[in-house]
Amino acid sequence: MREPNEAGPVHRYDAIIVGAGFSGLYQLHLLRDRLGLSVRVLEAAEGIGGTWYWNRYPGARCDSESYYYSYSFSRELEDEWEWTERYPEHGEIRRYLDHVADRFDLRRDIQLGTRVAGATYDEAANRWTVTTEVGERFEAQFVIAAVGCLSSANVPAIPGLESFAGAWYHTGRWPHEGVDFSGKRVGLIGTGSTGIQATPVIAAEAAHLTVFQRTANYSVPARNGPMDESFKAWVRENSEALRRKAREAPNGHPFDLSDRSALAVSAQEREAIYEAAWDRGGLRFRAAFRDIMLDRDANETASAFIRGKIRSIVKDPEVAETLTPRDHLFATKRPPIDTNYFETFNRDNVTLVDLKSSPIEAIVPEGVRTRDATYPLDVIVFATGFDALTGPLLGLDIRGRDGLTLKDVWAAGPKSYLGLQVPGFPNLFTMTGPGSPSVLTNMPVAIEQHAEWIADCLLHLRERGLDRIEAMPEAAESWGAEVNRAASATLLPMASSSWYLGANVPGKPRVFMPYAGGMAHYRGICERVAAEGYDGFALR
Length: 540
Ligand code: NA7
Fold this sequence. Notes:
Helix content: 25-40%
Number of strands: 20
CATH class of the domain at 10-152 and 388-539: Alpha Beta
Number of helices: 15
Bound molecules: ligand NA7
CATH superfamily of the domain at 10-152 and 388-539: FAD/NAD(P)-binding domain
Shape: globular
Strand content: 15-25%
CATH topology of the domain at 10-152 and 388-539: FAD/NAD(P)-binding domain
């Protein structure tokens, strides 16, 4: 790595966007094509796609359904693109984003293979200097961090990894050429959404798969399948209503949330409703009753239903019991959806290892050693998740006014106003940052809202001859209290090992990071703030 070249040329723009995933692409389109700003997008990867550029592991697909896991800002785009499956596979999402980049002529302003090493604010000049790992320098009035929420891979520091004689991979940094598992003994660590998607696919190919489970997880069948012509026609006919519904929903999915309490119906009726939701599949299982995420007893009925399903699917009662979550309630950690996950444990070539009773002690040349046994392996797959929300932002080495570093300001956990700005860092915006609904929603809905809010904000500044916007400390303080209040009104903080709380990364502050007050409610707050002259922000 070279040091930034002080003597090299400085490339000047109105705005620098870091990241070319869903958020960076749309932000570029708005700032360049609507506001006429000069914009450069800096992207570390060699292609566009953000999360979907990196996550190419076996079974990788989105848990949101394709017809609404997409942009809604262009009717033409919507009309010309056809999804092939109910849940889009990673390659199809990349093809979609490539199409968007071509259609809106975005590529000429995107610089690939460019990893940002630092961003420093100069108060006197009111400009940001952004440096890259190879020493290029950019200057801009505005910086928009569109770096994603789940892009900083978490490879656990297990002693001995470097001694492993086989190959190892993290799912979020998957080789483009794929991995050949045939004839191999594979170990998979982690049973979050990723591990649950990858397990059945790897098991079908490998000689043997050993799944190392730390926390047993609830999962509901996805019921993936091809998008048939009648469904496509229904989506086309109802497109506007569906998009409106997604925008008005608490989590950006166009589902009807039941208006009934799980506790207000008979046990028999409840069972029938859960059965129907199970058959239909997908994340909308949570919408079967209005209080699944709000009331412990209501949630316990859903949790118990899924535990019963695990018992009925998995033939070996001991394996079934190990797979049964008992330490947290359904969907208090991010709920996975699956294709034959629990069924996979009925295969002869699959072994489940319970790390709660026998933790991993080391990785040794021949495989993984737990307290009780050594498992010989040819390949280890880390499906161990991400340093979520704060990781990608802290990776940028951001320095604001008076040399203030984001790392120091967030030492005890992230603080922001609306998840959009941090006091001390003028003209820097964080898209879907901590303190915004982000990962609790269908991401494109949250992304479009942020991109549009930021574009409107820059337009507001320009129209009034203003050149600086900065969140005020009191506003960030009271927003932090609102983020806590909103989380406490749900069951979400009850899962103490959740990455929503930063619990998956050793040493990370335990703070509930996303805003759980609902996407539509949040949108209303952001609109009010803007309408009141950017209340809570200092404008200059
Ligand atoms: P997650 O949901 O963070 O899951 C990671 C899994 O890895 C989870 O089961 C963890 O157990 C496990 N894990 C993490 N570190 C270790 C160590 N050191 N030893 C053993 N097991 C470990 O990440 P995913 O990639 O599955 O999903 C991320 C999001 O992507 C998903 O929610 C969707 O939004 C898309 P734990 O539960 O912490 O005990």
